[in-house]
Prior knowledge:
Largest sheet: none
Strand content: under 5%
Oligomer: single chain
Helix content: over 70%
Number of helices: 2
Number of domains: 1
Structural class: mainly alpha
Number of strands: 0
Amino acid sequence: MELWQLxxxxxxxxxxxxxxxxxxxxxxxxxxxDAAIQARLKVMAEEAEQDASESSPQQQSAAKAx
Length: 66
């Protein structure tokens, strides 16, 4: 290999590593965001369930009729 070919090979390798790093970082961020959304949805569902169990039977029947 000539020197210029080695230079091109090195540049291509660096670009590929940079691209892979960005791809992995984006994937990690997406996984974290999805996990945070799932956790928030779980908390909201638990709060809604707790609110429903705390309401009086009259309020529950009025809500079903309404």
